[in-house]
Design a protein that fits this description.
By secondary structure, the protein is mostly helical. Helices cover 66% and strands 0% of the residues. Helix 1 packs across helix 3, helix 2 packs antiparallel against helix 3 and helix 6 runs antiparallel to helix 7. It is elongated, with a radius of gyration of 22 Å.
Length: 180
């Protein structure tokens, strides 16, 4: 979330924001995998696959925040974390299997970034024979949503996308002819 908030506040222009997001996710994914796998020993399996999964998870959250900020302004900086942390995180099943959550919330939580991220990182690190394609697609969808919101928000504020002033106002009524 911090990467998305910082990019929203410090970077101007949609392409620069998207490039900053990609750079942030790459560095953060590698650094987090380096700390979690080699230093703490929390992750197993392929280092680069873990780094890719962590980077995609961070990119999905950050791009959604930047997209919300681009579309609705500074309020989007709050809207992205509210959706991610206050709504999606409790139903993500990070601490327990999603089947342990009340139905249908456990299943719904897997369609948000925290749920897909947790499941993906568990799959690639500890269960290499499991099929993580659903989680990759979910994270890819959130990344694509963030990119689309960023571009739509940029082009929405352009002058040629606005309705010219006065075109939506009611026309002036014509004066009635005076009776002589």
């Amino acid at each position: 979330m911090i990467g998305g908030i910082l990019v929203s506040l410090l970077i101007v222009g949609p392409l620069r924001r998207l490039a900053a997001l990609l750079g942030f996710a790459t560095v953060a994914g590698i650094a987090t995998a380096l700390i979690m796998q080699t230093w703490f020993g929390f992750l197993e399996g392929s280092f680069w696959l873990n780094a890719l999964a962590l980077g995609a998870s961070m990119l999905a959250t950050a791009s959604f925040i930047v997209g919300c900020a681009s579309l609705i302004g500074r309020a989007g900086i709050a809207a992205g974390p509210v959706v991610t942390m206050l709504f999606a995180n409790p139903i993500s099943a990070a601490a327990v299997p999603w089947q342990f959550l009340p139905q249908p919330w456990g299943q719904i939580g897997q369609w948000f970034v925290p749920g897909a991220s947790n499941w993906l990182i568990r799959s690639v690190s500890f269960f290499p024979d499991a099929d993580p394609s659903k989680q990759w697609w979910v994270l890819g969808g959130w990344i694509a949503l963030g990119v689309v919101l960023t571009l739509v928000g940029h082009f929405r504020s352009r002058e040629e996308m606005r309705i010219p002033a006065g075109t939506l106002e009611a026309p002036e009524p014509e004066p009635e002819p005076a009776l002589a």
